[in-house]
Specification:
The protein has 437 residues and is an alpha+beta fold. 18% of the residues lie in helices and 43% in strands. The radius of gyration is 48 Å and the shape is elongated. The longest helix is centred in the N-terminal third of the chain and has 22 residues. The strands form 9 sheets. Strands 2, 5, 8, 10, 11, 13 and 14 form a 7-stranded mixed β-sheet that branches.
Length: 437
């Protein structure tokens, strides 16, 4: 034991100096590896303890401004601790203003209240150096409610058939609740519906939104119904009908109308059964092709052609193109059996001098024509003895144009000295000539 004390006391001063140097070096190492630092974090301001105000019929007028406020919190701690805090700052750093002690306030009061902060659920090692702002103003107002009808607004272009649907809202009105000045600024409550959902008759859950007179969103209010369901009940019918259009006039010399095409060729209509039952097609105004030598395209709105109570499902504009082409000509001899006389007089006979016709069209179309497809009608009601006419109503395949014909019909009274062969009757067919290809 004595030996141990001698060893312990020997060179005691140097031993104490060594311990002091070691302790200093240890603190230096700790400071180098775990330095103390400060960082500023941003977090949203929360409003707490408002139940007491609500029970007294009061609320915060500037709630939205408070809840949108960001509080900068400057925190001091070891660098590694600050690194951990940075990774989870949203859940570990909070800032709030407490209203639970405001038992004395009245409507119209403006209070300055401190901002409270908590770090890492009370974990040690963190120090709040400062916070910005350190206090906030709270405006107190009377809590009121007001009922508003719910209006529907459409997202997307609204075709006619959507307007004919009868939307049903689960709540036609809602109570808007909030500070008196905020509720007073509300002009209308709307819900927004996608047109595509309405066309498919889908039930849609939507959120009401309050707007002021200028169309700006009013914030800081709550609704008695946070969501509204919209359903649809069709009160009208749909019907598909063709689009019809014809041409008038004659194209430039050597040209003909190949075809007239409507895009689309049919359209879907929406309306009551009574309004739709007599609509079997929509006939547009004729396209004038007089002296035309190139295609004619027009965009025509169907709206003027529709009766009241009927609308177009989708785009109401129709594109119509009259295709004009320079064609070939071909001559045909038409058999007498294909020429019909109309309104013959019982005491008259009628003679056919020629029945040749010249047609124009595309070569491939002319090549497909058979003589049996070409017929003609001549009205002889106004012909007197010796009168002639070449007014023939020819029926030819679509896309083919009649250039000329030399058919002449002569009327003769049976009382005249020269009487051509004839057959009595309302319609007279002449004998068949030969076909000239």
């Amino acid at each position: 034991m004595k030996r141990f004390r001698e060893l312990l006391m020997k060179d005691l001063g140097w031993k104490l100096l060594s311990v002091a140097i070691a302790a200093t070096m240890w603190f230096m190492v700790i400071s180098i590896n775990q330095p103390i630092d400060t960082r500023t974090y941003s977090t949203a301001l929360a409003v707490q303890g408002e139940e007491g105000l609500t029970a007294r019929g009061l609320t915060i007028a500037n709630r939205e401004a408070l809840e949108e406020m960001k509080v900068g919190v400057k925190i001091k701690a070891q660098r590694t601790s600050l690194d951990r805090l940075s990774q989870r700052q949203a859940e570990l750093i909070s800032a709030s203003v407490d209203l639970s002690t405001l038992n004395y306030v009245e409507s119209g009061d403006v209070l300055t209240l401190p901002v409270n902060t908590t770090i890492a659920n009370g974990a040690a090692g963190y120090t709040v150096e400062s916070k910005t702002p350190s206090s906030v103003e709270v405006q107190i107002e009377t809590l009121v409610s007001k009922e508003f009808p719910v209006q529907i607004s459409w997202n997307g272009e609204t075709p006619g058939n959507v307007l004919q649907l009868a939307p049903t809202l689960s709540s036609k009105t809602v109570m808007v609740k909030g500070a008196q000045s905020t509720v007073a600024s509300v002009s209308v409550v709307r819900v927004f519906v996608n047109v595509s959902d309405a066309q498919e008759h889908k039930d849609t859950v939507v959120t009401p939104i309050a707007y002021d007179r200028d169309g700006n969103t009013v914030r800081g209010v709550t609704f008695s119904e946070e969501s509204i369901t919209i359903s649809y009940h069709r009160t009208q019918q749909e019907k598909a009908v063709p689009i019809l259009v014809h041409t008038i006039g004659t194209p430039a010399e050597g040209y003909h109308v190949v075809n007239v095409v409507c895009t689309p060729q049919s359209i879907n209509l929406n309306g009551t059964p009574e309004a739709l039952q007599n609509i079997h097609g929509i006939t547009l105004d004729d396209i004038d092709v007089t002296d035309a030598f190139e295609n004619i395209t027009k965009t025509i709105s169907l709206s003027p052609y529709l009766p009241d109570g009927v609308s177009v499902m989708g785009d109401a504009n129709i594109s119509v193109t009259a295709y004009i082409a320079k064609g070939e000509e071909r001559q045909y001899n038409i058999p007498v059996g294909q020429i019909m006389l109309q309104n013959e007089k019982a005491d008259y006979t009628y003679a056919l001098q020629e029945s040749q016709i010249v047609l124009m069209g595309r070569a491939e179309d002319l090549a497909k024509i058979e003589v049996s497809q070409i017929t003609g009608r001549v009205d002889v009601a106004n012909l007197e003895d010796g009168d002639t006419t070449n007014a023939v109503q020819w029926s030819v395949p679509e896309g083919i144009q009649v250039v000329s014909s030399n058919l002449v019909v002569t009327a003769a009274s049976q009382r005249s000295e020269t009487t051509p062969d004839h057959t009595d009757g309302d319609e007279h067919m002449l004998e068949e000539p030969t076909y000239i290809p």
